Amino acid sequence: MNKPKFNAFSEQIASPDFSVSRPAARLLGHLLPDGKGKTILYINQFEGLTAAATTEYDALILDYCEPVACERFLFELRGSFSELLYLKPVFLLAAAAPQKEMIRQLVDGVIPAVQLAGISNLMEQLLQRNREILKAAHGSENEKPLLMKAIRYLASRKASLIPVPDPDSVIGYSFPILTVSCKSHQFEQVMEAVNEGVKKGFFDPDFISRLQLCPECFSDSFSLRDICPHCKTLLFASHNPFLHASQAATVSENGVPEKNTLFKQNSEAAVMKVSVDYSKPSEIQTCHICRHQTRDPEIKAFCNSCHTESEPEHLVSFDVAALKLTAAGATAALNRSGDEQQAGVMAPGVISQDSFSLFLEHEMERYRSGAFPGTIGILQLQLSAADRNRLGNRVVRLLKEVADEIKPNLAPSNFLSLSYTHHALLILLPNTQKVDAIQIITGFRQDIERLLRFNLAVTAKKVKMIVKEIQRNGFSAEAFLASLLAK
Ligand SMILES: [Zn+2]
Ligand SMILES: [Zn+2]
């Protein structure tokens, strides 16, 4: 990736006016100097730009000049499951706050001009909180990734998740950070995350509306239909009959005598109780097909979206509520799980990720002082979604088995750690050139792939390998590690 050079941009000018124009295709945007060593990228060309390409920048300012392209980029960024992307401070450059509530909730502020003075404090706070979260993000997860992501985003922003009425959403509402993380047909996952977050006490719900949804597709658009209990068709005609005592006959509202099987026998008796010579029982319905008459038709909910018919009692009830992050939620966002701590204690020869980060930090410092560079290697199991479901918590045991496999061949000066989140082994090789490290790590990879061949629970037998020379690159060790794992 070409690093954009600093341009002649200054905080004083109110609108972007770049003295040096560069071909947009090669550059992501313009780096803004903030004087504190932060890399803030101003972007006004979104064509062909992927969110992942901005991983290494601390914060982004997005020009809202092309709203559609800008929103696509913003949704991709916030939709990512990499903490370095979805937690990134993002400001929108626009004359006024955008109309769409969804967009307003997904940016950290709207600024009328590229001036860092007004946002640098907020940005610093966000980056500080994100660092805390990034540390925790290396641990194994107790919660489902979507719920974890939502509470981390809200903890970073100290914000509530406010549902937004959205005609494009299946249920009529969007939950900004959750909705951008799922495909539109995966609304079930959004509801699951909301329900689970409320159940676990991470969210304090402020009730807005109760929805009744189709159990098949979660659409809130359906019609209630009367069904003939006899022939099960939905062709019913309803009418209000009159029972005339004197004529012992039933007539319709407009006086036409009709053959009525429900009331004929007892019409006289019924009418004798009142002082008028007719009575008007409740509406009755006649089936167009089989002429069956009933006052108690079956009721079915017909989904206008997927066209399935359900019993009304089977409709899914879902409460739309504004979700305030509770103290428990904020703690869970930063929580290091028990498994992570166990790794340091229970698997001999494997150090915790915190310790690993410390050693990595140390290596990065050593490199800066002119020492021989070290190398970091990552071996990541390419588990399929089915594998992950099948393994569940046993993935921890699998990773420990894999670690046991390679430990005997690890040099005493090397460090090994495990990332349960990324199903990866982290190997630090101080004082080792990349070319030698590749040879060593490739050997480990072959060992692991051999082991996986005999593991029936895992269908994916391949291991992804990343080998990177350790450099002093302006990142913290955690951010450097996270950027490697995000690849
Ligand atoms: Zn019928
Ligand atoms: Zn449906």
Automatic annotation (TrEMBL):
Pfam families: TackOD1
Residue ranges of every copy of the Thaumarchaeal output domain listed in the record: 144-321
Stated name of the protein: Thaumarchaeal output domain-containing protein
Species assigned in the record: Adhaeribacter soli
